[in-house]
Amino acid sequence: MFFIILIIFLFFSGFFRIYKDKEKAIPKTTLDLLIEQVKKSNEDKNVLDSVMHEFYTHFYNISSQSSDFNNWLKLIQEITMLDYMSVEQVAAFRDDLSSKNGSIKKEIEQAIGISLKHREDGKNKRK
């Protein structure tokens, strides 16, 4: 009897583990990978130039209805939070994105405004 219960237990625990592994294996989008690259870049100009090239090539325009919209905004925030761009370059980037994505202009401006605030707060803390 003990062996039957043990076999049943092992059988169900195997299914649970397989289900849990499948749950963790949610594929990352290209935007997720770009966000990771920015975070791990240590402001390496080559890495960030590569991210910007990928962004302008594939993600320049987006709809607020897109499933990637929040990740798109997060990527913009991650990029503009770094010292990689001067404040003037960030403003030009914001204006450029806003003109090409007019329906989400407010969201772009808010996202970049928040990242610039965090960027400045971080600089003040480092002093």
Explain what the structure shows:
The chain is an all-alpha fold and 127 residues long. It has one domain (30-126). It has 6 helices and no strands. The protein has helices at 2-24, 30-40, 45-58, 69-81, 87-100, 105-126.
Show the helix and strand layout.
Blueprint: H1 2-24, H2 30-40, H3 45-58, H4 69-81, H5 87-100, H6 105-126
Helix pairs in contact: 2-4, 4-6, 5-6
The largest sheet is: none
Stretches where pLDDT is under 50 for at least 5 consecutive residues are none
Give the overall shape: elongated
- Alpha plus pi helix count: 6
Instruction: Determine the structural class based on helices, strands and strand pairing.
Output: mainly alpha
Please report the distance between the alpha carbons of the first and last residues: 70 Å
Helix content: over 70%
Give the total of domains: 1
Mean of residue pLDDT? Answer: 83
As a whole number of angstroms, the C-alpha radius of gyration is: 21 Å
> Oligomeric state of the chains?
single chain
In N-to-C order, the SSE pattern is HHHHHH
The counted number of beta strands is 0
Give the percentage of residues in beta strands.
under 5%
